[in-house]
Specification:
6 helices, two-stranded antiparallel ribbon, 2 strands, single chain, N-utilizing Substance Protein B Homolog, Chain A, mainly alpha
Amino acid sequence: MQARTNARLAGVQALYQMETSGTGVETVIREFRTHRLGGDIEGNLLHEADEDFFGELLRGVVRLQPKIDPLIEKRLARGWTLARLDATARAILRSAAYEFLNRADIPSGAVINEYVEIAKAFFGEDDPRFINAVLDGLARDLKDGAPPQTGRE
């Protein structure tokens, strides 16, 4: 399980890098596989990550982003858009949404817990709670198969 957790963390970092640098998905996947996943930097061993899951996650988020983003935005408060969020928060939300949509083998509660823990690594107290609330609502929306409720009403 730790290898999958590490792949999620690396996935968030890679999505952030892609957004801020404009680098394409395949280039970033190659870079992470070559230099960051399971290797070492200046003698410090990097944790092993599930490289296949990492690649699936990045490619999936990129491929499904036009579907994912509106689902997330419907869960944001009135007046908020994804563009207003921090790039790391966007990467976390998009990654989890991808898993909700495409990884029925992983319970949504486990996905939420994983990404809330990742949020804690990057943010103070409020942001992980925000991430948790958005993901919890999104998971319920997708599980029910009903049209997502919006935080904008």
